[in-house]
Structures are given as C-alpha cells and as structure tokens.
Amino acid sequence: MTPPLFLCRMCIIYHKMFHIFPTKFVYWEKIKNHIEIKEKYSKIIDQDLDKNVEIYKDNFRWDCRCNSSFFQKTNGLDLFQTDFLNSVIWGPMDNMLKDLGVSINLPSPKNSNVTKIWYNKYEVGDWQEIHDHKTNSHTVTYSGIYILELNEMNPTSFVDTNKIESWNMDENISSFYTKDIVEGSVILFPSELMHYVNPCKNSRTTISFNIFSEF
Hints:
Number of domains: 1
Helix content: 10-25%
Strand order of the largest sheet: 1-2-3-10-7-12-5-4
Distance between the termini: 33 Å
Structural class: alpha+beta
Largest sheet: 8 strands, antiparallel
Order of helices and strands: EEEHEHEEEEEEEE
CATH superfamily: q2cbj1_9rhob like domain
Number of strands: 12
C-alpha cells in the first residue's frame, strides 16, 4: 500500500496540529496566553524598531521586503523573557517531541538551546523569498515562527524538494500552505525545510527563532 503524501492530525483538547512531509514535518499549536503575550511584545517590538530601524535597514541582506531585527548584533534573547520562551518555544517543543516521537519516531534531544531569535514586521505588499534556516556551522536543528499579529490568512508556505529553480513550483514539489494557521500559533519545523512568505495584504508580525539540539 502506498503511504499518503501528507499526514495530518488535530488534537481538539490542546488545539495542536501538525503536517508531515514524506521526510520532514511542520508542527503547530495555539499558545494559550497569546493575548497577554501580544499586548506585551507588540509594544516591545515597536519600541525596538523605532530605535534601531535604520541599523537594521543598513545591514539588511535578504532578497525580500520587511522590517526585521535579524541583523542586530546580539542573538536577540535580550528582548524576550523566560516566560515568553517557556510559553512559545519550550512548551510547544516538548509537545512536538511527544506527539511526533510516537508518529514518526522523532528522537528527543538531551539538550536544546535558542541560538537566535528575531522579529519580522510586514506591511502591505511585504514578502520574503524562499529560504531555509540552515547555517554553515550546523548549529541549527529546529526553527520556529510565532504569529504575533495576523490580519489575513497566513501567507507562509513550506516546500520540500531536492531541486528548486527560482519560483517555478512544479509537480515534483510537496507544498504546504499555512492559510488555516491562525494568529497566536507557533509553527515548528526542521531548519532545512524551505519556506517563503507571499505578499501580505495587511500588516503582520512574526517572531522567528532557531534551536540547536544535541542528541
């Protein structure tokens, strides 16, 4: 029997979902205290962007259009407190490892650390090119996107292929569109999984992060 290309599951109690590629996965779940997090970190992000926007723009090296703190000199952890990391990263990651450990035998690491965390603010028409979060030093295992603000269907798309030529998405590419993933959700995935952001119709704010895990 030929296995299905995609597998999906939803747990009603915890509002968790995940989408599995043939060799990779996209996992997501809703954060319970999102309203409080959004109120607090929207202000922090606005203040940081007002202060450092010119620095970020001067160092911007992506082939896309958005405001991002990725190019700050630090790893970004100074903007995010422990309660944020526990709610948005470590709690969902524990759930991911538990759920996918059963479904696809995803191994549990003995230790994990956030190596980088940054925010992206999108205005109307802003977008992001197809990319992954791999690094030459192999210090990234998993990555995540927390949807802090969303005023439309989520425009992020994931693709899984061994060959991608520009934007020519053909039948050999497995795609997953996240339009049904709502504000307040965190999305976790292997760092080598390609993804991109379609042009936004309204303002949107996300917080992205990279995790290095030791096994």
